Amino acid sequence: MRIAHFMPNIWEPGGIASYIARVGAMQQADGHQVLYLDYEAHRSATTLADRETHYVSDDADLLAATKRLSLDLLHTHTLVNGLERVPVPCVRTVHGHQPFCPSASRFLKRWSKPCDRAYSPLGCAWGHFVDHCGSIRPAEFLAGFARTKQEMKGLSAVWVTTDSDFIRTQMLRSGYDPSRIVAMNMPVPETARAVPLTKEGPPRMLYAGRIVPSKGVDSLIKALRHVRTDVKLDIAGSGPHEENIRKLIRRENLESRVTLHGWCDSARVDQLLREARALIFPSIWHEPGGTSAFEAMMQARPVICSRVGGMPEVVIHGETGLLYPPGDEKALAAAIDQLAGSWEQAARLGTQAREYVMSRYTLRLHVDQLAKVYDTCIADFASRRKAGRDSLPEGAADAAALSRNS
């Protein structure tokens, strides 16, 4: 099969680029011919020159390229205008909230809490102006709603995979057709061996991610005021909220307990994970998936995680980690105390976490499941083209079955 993955700035370092590279490499090893598509404007940004990357000028040229390159299937990881007219079978992976959230944030900034409303033009407009979930500048405001409208139009014509069942559920709440949406969690990174938890020194906890308000780092710092155990917190990451976090640490007299490491590459994050008792994931917005949680679990580290987005699908309370209500600083402090005070429980949860993700979320299982989606998409495309009209696929229950087995 001749497959192409499309993403603007496809090789920009980040979780999606890593995902595309890993999936594409395994598809290539399975005997498929895999190409990669990007916009011409990003040609100079390509860092992985060993991969067969082709460039297009715009979305219209992208659709034309599917025929020009004799593709059997296009797999896009972002919005493409005119996707409903794509001339070859197409699968879209949804990595975020854009198909049902004009601001793409699902975060009510005014109240510092996740948004739980379903998409509606009136309700989401209210959210922008009252709840501060998105920009009210006219151009940005209108562009967000236009993007969601275009998503609804394009995604109605292709097969969709999502990073979590949470994302699929939100799409269904917003009126998408369930017969073509398959929930598939991201695959875990490859880690050959996990380093046992250390018993030496005070327990260390790790946060790894961007420092922005929706990630809940300030809530984590404030929770340390209620932690009774002598713990140390490592923060690996940077972002526009970093200086505010530094001021908060000083104001709370926590300099001796918190270390800001700044941006860290994957090797440094792995080292910090090996030294950690647990990873803390304190987000107060609806995380679609959470790559750092998978990384921790593969290292046999439990995850202390807020109950938001797709995270509770992976972090099972009392089995692979601990969950708490988003923004609840005392509940977070209690979870930290629980694992800091019991090496045995942390080790047990970490071992179970590694076993859990290795049995359900390996790259091999993910690519095999994706191949089933491809086959169903191709058969559906051929059936609709033969019928000469856009109809639901024969056997519309296929997507639901694929989701249950993913």
* Rg (C-alpha, Å): 22 Å
Straight-line N-to-C gap: 22 Å
Structural class: alpha/beta
What kind of sheet is the major sheet?
7 strands, parallel
Q: Helical amount among residues, as a percent range?
A: 25-40%
Topology record:
Elements: E1 2-6, H1 15-29, E2 33-39, E3 53-56, H2 59-68, E4 73-76, E5 90-94, E6 107-108, E7 113-114, H3 121-131, H4 138-155, E8 159-162, H5 165-173, E9 181-183, E10 204-208, H6 217-223, E11 232-236, H7 242-251, E12 258-262, H8 266-275, E13 278-281, H9 291-298, E14 303-306, E15 321-324, H10 329-340, H11 343-360, H12 363-387, H13 398-405
Parallel strand pairs: 1-2, 1-4, 2-3, 4-5, 5-8, 8-9, 10-11, 10-13, 11-12, 13-14, 14-15
Antiparallel strand pairs: 6-7
Helix pairs in contact: 1-12, 6-7, 6-10, 9-11, 12-13
Brief synopsis:
It contains 13 helices and 15 strands.
Task: Explain how this protein is built.
This protein has 406 residues and is of the alpha/beta class. The chain has two domains: 2-188 and 363-405, 3-Layer(aba) Sandwich (Rossmann fold), CATH 3.40.50; 204-360, Rossmann fold (3-Layer(aba) Sandwich). It is 40% helix and 16% strand. The protein is built from 13 helices and 15 strands. It has helices at 15-29, 59-68, 121-131, 138-155, 165-173, 217-223, 242-251, 266-275, 291-298, 329-340, 343-360, 363-387, 398-405, and strands at 2-6, 33-39, 53-56, 73-76, 90-94, 107-108, 113-114, 159-162, 181-183, 204-208, 232-236, 258-262, 278-281, 303-306, 321-324. It has a seven-stranded parallel β-sheet, with helices on both faces. A six-stranded parallel β-sheet has the order 12-11-10-13-14-15, with helices on both faces. A hairpin with a 4-residue loop joins β6 and β7. α1 (15-29) packs across α12, α6 (217-223) packs parallel to α7 (242-251) and α6 packs across α10 (329-340). The radius of gyration is 22 Å and the shape is globular. Residues 391-401 have low confidence and may be disordered.
